[in-house]
Amino acid sequence: MPNIGEVNVDWDRFRNFRFPAWKIVFGVAALLWLASGIYIVGPDEVGVVQRFGAFDRQTEPGPHYRWPFPVESVQTPKVTQIRRVEVGLRTVGRRAASSPSQFQDVPQESLMLTGDENIVDVQFIVQYLISDARAFLFNVKDQHETVKSVAEAAMREVIGRNRIDAVLTSDKLAVQNEARDQMQEVLDRYGSGVRVVAVQLQNVHPPKEVIDAFKDVASAREDKSRFINEADAYRNDLLPKARGQAAALLNQAEAYKQTQIKRAEGEAARFVSVLKEYEKAKDVTRKRMYLETMEKILSNPEMEKIIMSDEALRGAVPYLPLSPLGGRSAAAGKGGTN
């Protein structure tokens, strides 16, 4: 019996053993094929997995596994990337990093007919992003061109409902919003999985052949608006002043009226009270009224007074003008009283 711990190994048998090379190659290939099913979805992407070409599932950002090709395949569209479509113009690049972009006109896309049968050159940019990756990939073919065609059709419809004056001047923002809503409605009917972010008008002007005439018309309209604004400003400045003056005159007239009424009422009341006293004691009242009147006359320094004695009064000629005697009034008054 062999000793404990001893192992008899037939090394000649192992030396003669040969593992088939094709099995090694097949095993390595199988491992590589299975490893090819690993994929990573970026933070701004969504994974759309297809099994034998048909949609199977949708995966979120991060590492994932699928059955390798040809069983399953995956697409990872960027759902947060803002994409843009240019209608009526094309970006041809920049000469330098700091210089603005260069654009090329595409008149077959930009020339449109307005509601008042005028031609206008409209160049605009559409910004959109993917709202439903499955619908974006499987419901519509050639998504970029589809969005561009819908944008051009929607803008033509909106321009056709507006007059050229509104499109060139005051209603540009309304045109942009209306075209965006029109685009979104059509794309939703298509099930395109696209959300329109913005429609931006880049350049809106009449055709080059008549642009000078339109500039003259626009200048005339600006002058008209300026004259109207100046007239409104003058009116707004003048009317409040006139209204204020009128109100002041009315207030003064009302105050004068009330003053005269109160004064007349006071004099009437005073006259009635005097009349009552007079009727009670006619002689006394008559004497008092005479004394009060003489007190007012004699106490007035501006009134010229001539005091004559009784003898002088008897010798005075009736209706004799007494003004020349004013110089001697003081001397004549020393010897008598009125």
From TrEMBL:
Homology family: Belongs to the band 7/mec-2 family. HflK subfamily.
TM segment ranges: 21-42
Keywords: Hydrolase, Membrane, Protease, Transmembrane, Transmembrane helix
Function: HflC and HflK could encode or regulate a protease.
Organism, scientific name: Desulfobaculum xiamenense
Name listed for the protein in its UniProt record: Protein HflK
Subunit annotation: HflC and HflK may interact to form a multimeric complex.
Coiled-coil region(s): none
Compartments it resides in: Membrane
Pfam families, sorted: Band_7
Listed GO MF terms: peptidase activity
